[in-house]
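Give me structure tokens for this 437-residue protein.
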Amino acid sequence: MNIRFAVVAAASAVVALPSWGQGIPVTGATNITISGLLSVGVKNSVISQGSAADAAWAPRSAMPSETHVDDNTSRLIIASTSKITEGWNVIFRLESRFTPNVRPGAALLPAGPGAPTGLAVNDATGFADGDTWGGVSSPYGSIVVGKSTLYYTDTISAGYLAPTLEAPGESYRIWDANGLASFNILSTYMTGSATAAGVFTPTKQNILGNTRSSNVVRYDSILFKPDAASLLQFSLAFSKNAAGAQNMWKSVADGSTYEGGSTIYGKVAYNGHGFSASGSYLDQKFQGVLTTAPNTELKAMRLGGSYKFGFGLKVGAVYDNANMVNGLNTVGVLSDAKRTSFEIPISYAFGDHAVYATYSVAGKTSSLDASGAKQMNFVYDYAMTKRAFVGFYYTTLKNDAHAYYQPFLTGFSPFGGSAIATGESWRQAGIILNYWF
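Here you go.
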């Protein structure tokens, strides 16, 4: 068996897998690719008000600051294509997450009164825990079934990941998983309760509740070419229950039927003549939830656009709107929890260097006072090779008095314990390495 290794771009849920090198012929009709990402950083985090407690250390008080080595969603990807006939292939992708900073399942905190005996990193790592699916590609597009990232990462751009379609939002070649505004601001919203006077007690929610959706059937179109300098692609996806097993919620005691619920997703992306544009829509009806209950249905829309000048400057804007039906309880009366957010990313590349500034704002939840947040990112990175980057990342996140926007994955043992509380501010600085292999 003649096996030659290759490099494959690791974009989320792309089915036409681009390659920088040769394929790996296993048989006359099958190729296998092995690729991945090592992303690790040394970071210092500070909570300005210092009143947030680490949930795993209930007897302790605050963790107002910490310095640690941190994983930024490192992963290993195995993918394959097997030719059926000309233009038609069976395709497969298995993405596993690994943490270079800790041992999975190890005791991550020292023994002490009230301390846990061990903290598994189940939410951060695992075999086949990334986008993992199988399906068929054809001259008309590709259909895959399995686990897929929907909406959550839309408008994050990394041109070396998917060189055919660059997205209009954040575009760092390195990134701090805790500091990505697409996660902290655009993909987060607040539900909760309010007093008659409008004092808001928030409950933090993530789009879809997870980063990979389950039970997904997804279609990705071919790359259309409106003209010689333009590319256009669209995607559609459906899941009966993106959060878990399809028959998790029974509607009758004997389990003969289950209650409704579904997730519908659509996206269109365009690159051409210096412009990048993206539009996404999500409608998630939760299984096992009555239409008169709290948190019934999530409707979200994200739009973005950017322009890249010929001398290396890129300027963009992203708008996100999230609406949780019955997400707000005001003295026993349910109403929708609505939130809009904005992001302004600016970057400038010169030679092997690049600098970035991204300003993000989460608006008030349903016009409730002091329920928004602001985030600012400053980044510098340097290309050591075409796929290896090192740089400096600095983030500030400021919550209004009644808001609870939290850096992505903070509060988990391998990603730092400095989870902030309502109304607190957070900042983090780090030196980070990204190596796509």
